[in-house]
Amino acid sequence: MASAPAGFAPTVAASTSFGFSRFTIVACPFPSRTHLPAASSVGVRNQQRASTATACLPPPNTSHGAATRLYVSGLSFRTTERSLRDAFEKFGDLTEVCLVMDRVAKRPRGFAFLSYTGEEEARGAMEGMHGKFLDGRVIFVEVAKRRAEA
């Protein structure tokens, strides 16, 4: 492979062959930017899907306490919002239950966001449910982190 000219940073570009993706290094004139190729017409699996988690985030003007919003991972594909609410309501008043769904498969993606009215309730739910079984799977509960500004 030829070396890149000075001032150019290598980036990764995808190409397809027989329906499989392979990655090659190409020179990029913008070292701080990531360049992704346009989605190919080979199949749905090679196209990038929009994130479904954005629908669960509160609008910027809504103020949720940092420690009142929880991230629950390791959920079964059979878990419903009702079963989440039933499992977590014993720790306090839930204001929001958002089970993130896969738009293509029409099933849960395996994680959810919960909001409580108070920090003590959220802390109790985190301590009480972390590492416990729900719908046959061990779930993990932690404080939800804000997304990085893009």
TrEMBL record:
Any idea which UniProt keywords this protein has?
RNA-binding
Show where the RRM domain sits: 68-146
Residues annotated as transmembrane: none
- Database matches in Pfam families: RRM_1 (PF00076)
InterPro entries given in the database record: Nucleotide-bd_a/b_plait_sf, RBD_domain_sf, RRM_dom
Q: Name one GO molecular function term.
A: RNA binding
Q: Which SMART domains does the UniProt record give?
A: RRM
- PROSITE patterns with a match to the protein in the record: RRM
Per the record, the GO terms for biological process are:
chloroplast mRNA modification; cytidine to uridine editing
GO CC, any one term:
chloroplast
What is the protein's name according to its record? RNA-binding (RRM/RBD/RNP motifs) family protein
Organism, by scientific name, is: Zea mays
